[in-house]
Amino acid sequence: MRDPKHVAILISGRGSNMRALVEQAKEYEVALIASNKPEAPGLEWARLRGFSTWELESKGIEKEAFDRKLSAALEVHGVGTVALAGFMRILSPWFVHEWRGRIVNIHPSLLPKYRGLDTHARAIADAEQFGGCSVHLVTEELDAGEVLGQAEVPILPTDNAQSLERRVLAEEHRLYPTVLSEFVMR
Ligand code: GRF
Question: Is residue 35 situated within a structural domain?
Fold first, then answer.
């Protein structure tokens, strides 16, 4: 049974958003933490705290074959909502269809501006007044699904990509748990 309040968090790296989602969980329960990178530091953090984890190196496996194995693991854990948190892999159309309307992501820009990578450097280069982050639904088109929530961060004259990233990341850690709690209730 897929329960919307049973959340899987998908990571590939350090997992700071995953930690924020775990530590600020209110309306949802973290049922599984999964990674396509067995060496992801966030996975070790999750294991040490007794969370169920799933890992499979995605390099060398055909995309949909990986996604079918991932999907089976989500089913086993009764997952109903999939939260991407620094999951550096584009999901296959099969997976997006199978979990349609149930996958969310955090992206470090004020969507629809700056989809893709290097969002902070691009915002600074364009002399934007604000950067920020967005939680959005995942669809087949990259970073293009419905925006569920956003937080703005002023860009200072002294900012570079790293300093802006630090301040935006702090906002991500506040925004994502709040929006996810609202999302699982809707
Ligand atoms: C965050 O900036 C997030 O917006 C982007 O990837 C980064 C992940 O960082 N999708 P972390 O692994 O959550 O620390």
Answer: yes
pLDDT tens readout for residues 23-41? 999 999 999 999 999 999 9
Q: How many domains does the chain have?
A: 1
Tell whether ligand 1 has an atom less than 6 A from the beta carbon of residue 132: no
Q: What is the pTM of this model?
A: 0.97
User: Which residue of the set 77, 107, 120, 173 is catalytic?
Assistant: 107
Could you write out the DSSP letters of every residue in 22-62? HHT-SS-EEEEEEES-TT-HHHHHHHHTT--EEE---TTS-
Q: Is residue 91 part of a domain?
A: yes
User: Is 86 close to ligand 1, i.e. is its CB under 6 Å away?
Assistant: yes
Find the CATH number of the domain harbouring 22: 3.40.50.170
